Amino acid sequence: MIPKAHLHKLLLDWYDSSKRDLPWRKSSEPYAVWVSEIMLQQTQVATVIPYWLTWMASFPTAKILAEADEQQVLSIWQGLGYYRRCRNLLAGAKWVSEHGIPTTLESWLEVPGVGRYTAGAISSIAQGQRSPLVDGNVERVYARLTGDHSIGKDLHSAAWVWAEQKMCSERPGDWNQALMELGAMICTPKTPKCMECPLSSVCVADSSNQSLILPRRSVAAAIKRLNHAVWVPGRNGKFGVRQIPKGQWWEGMWEFPRAETNDPFGAEQLRQIVGEGWVESFGLIRHSVTHHRITIEVSYVRTDTQSPELVWLTPTELAHLPMPAPQRRILKMILKIRSPET
After folding, report:
1. What is the mean pLDDT of residues 283-298?
2. E-assigned strand segments in the chain
3. Is residue 131 within 8 Å of 120, Cβ to Cβ?
4. Fewest CB atoms less than 10 Å from the CB: which of 64, 247, 298, 314?
5. Higher per-residue confidence, 305 vs 38
6. Annotated catalytic residue: which of 29, 37, 106, 255?
7. How far apart, in whole angstroms, are the C-alpha atoms of residue 67 and residue 97?
């Protein structure tokens, strides 16, 4: 077994010379690290960078975020997806505003929306604590380094044990970031760069040509296909939108009236909301959410009915409203051909 100190030196030397220049790495503030870690969950770094910069310019402290309106917060977040993260961040900021910034791993776990991984990241990176973490990158690095053929929860649990055992006391934050950086840049899922890996000499998968086999994959969730219809009502220079109720995808955001097309009452529901009018089909768009594949049939409705369920806004006003990505695409589609008056 390779000595832990040697493993630390190999990886940290590589990290010091090869780490990416990321904006949140220039700050040691727990809040800045917290925001980056929440945004980076299930989202690529290149996508996160502009969102993080805009967010930090809009809400530079947890206190300022805690005082913000949810609609303003959702508007800044829109397009980043997985909106529960945004609401959790807002709820966490309100908690921190009342109780203060946590100073230990255990106290970070009391913050709404902060789990074991995020607490480990913040406390180690921003506060220098010996707190391990495991994300998808670390789990993959662990499986290949050790040759662990476990899958699912067994692999995840084993990776946490390993992360605790291999924790670097002198540079805990850099060690955690180095593990994640290695997984993101070198020990990638499909095309690992084993020839460039600083740990190749101690990697079981590399020595046994199993880098593309490990980690073993769990059975993927079955793809679920959904079909929706969206009617875009227009009248007097404005479009009609409604706020998405609690319990539905994208709750609290705004959308053009939508219904499932396999619902026999879907068209009638849309007609009741939008009212009578001239309907024009605009074609289909497709959108993915986790293992769901959604096909949306888009129609424009020119109507004189002023439905009480709708809020009527100009295109300029809609630009500042938090809307889900597919709804934003629908708006762009409509505006290319139709104005609210025609």
Report:
1. 92
2. 224-235, 238-243, 254-255, 258-260, 277-289, 292-303, 311-313
3. yes
4. 247
5. 38
6. 37
7. 9
Number of other CB atoms surrounding residue 146 within 10 Å: 17
Identify the weakest region by mean pLDDT among 41-50, 221-230, 330-339: 330-339
Q: And the tokens for 172?
A: 């805990």
Q: Is 37 a catalytic residue?
A: yes
| Whether residue 103 has pLDDT greater than 80 | yes
> CA-CA distances (angstroms) from residue 179 to 21, 78, 132, 134, 155?
16, 30, 11, 9, 17
Check whether 262 has a pLDDT greater than 90. no
Return the amino acid letter for 214.
Answer: L
Q: Are strands 238-243 and 254-255 parallel, antiparallel or unpaired?
A: antiparallel
Q: Is the pLDDT of residue 31 over 60?
A: yes
CA-CA-CA-CA torsion for 27, 33, 39, 45, nearest 10 degrees? 50
**Helix intervals (H) in 26-151:** 30-40, 45-58, 62-66, 70-77, 84-99, 105-108, 116-125, 136-146
On whether the CB atoms of residues 274 and 257 are closer than 8 A, the answer is yes
